[in-house]
């Protein structure tokens, strides 16, 4: 069954957020391995774990697109929930990394 326009847009957005999170994880790995000390280095594992969790959330939701949802959420509701979680994560990362 083809996806609705809303579901297709959600799928596109979730793939984008999943990719951005993967790039952030790779960049943090590069930075933590550099000789430059940073205040966030002691929190590296916690930061990467939070990013992995968000990336996995995006992946799980991508797999659910177009399928019946037990929670009955519509694509725009899923989009809003994941956006809010991403926004909280971004604010937390900003505090942790000091940007």
Question: How are the elements arranged and paired?
Answer:
Layout: H1 5-33, H2 44-64, H3 75-97
Helix pairs in contact: 1-2, 1-3, 2-3
What can you tell me about this protein's structure?
By secondary structure, the chain is mainly α. The chain has one domain (5-97). The chain has 3 helices and no strands. It has helices spanning 5-33, 44-64, 75-97. The longest helix is centred in the first third of the chain and has 29 residues, at 5-33. It is elongated.
Structure at a glance:
It is built from three helices and no strands.
* Uncertain ranges: none
Number of domains: 1
Gap from first CA to last CA: 44 Å
What is the helix tally? 3
**What proportion of the residues is helical, as a percent range?**
over 70%
Total number of strands = 0
Give me the secondary-structure category: mainly alpha
Strand content: under 5%
Order of helices and strands: HHH
Give a quick account of the main beta sheet: strands, pairing sense, barrel closure. Answer: none
What is the arithmetic mean of pLDDT? Answer: 89
What gyration radius follows from the Cα positions, in whole Å?
A: 16 Å
- The gross shape turns out to be elongated
């Amino acid at each position: 069954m083809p996806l609705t326009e809303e579901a297709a847009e959600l799928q596109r957005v979730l793939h984008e957020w999943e990719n951005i999170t993967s790039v952030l994880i790779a960049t943090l790995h590069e930075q933590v391995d550099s000789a430059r000390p940073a205040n966030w280095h002691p929190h590296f594992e916690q930061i990467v774990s939070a990013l992995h969790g968000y990336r996995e959330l995006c992946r799980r939701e991508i797999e659910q697109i177009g399928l019946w949802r037990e929670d009955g959420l519509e694509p725009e509701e899923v989009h809003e929930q994941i956006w809010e979680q991403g926004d909280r994560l971004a604010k937390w990362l900003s505090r942790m990394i000091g940007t």
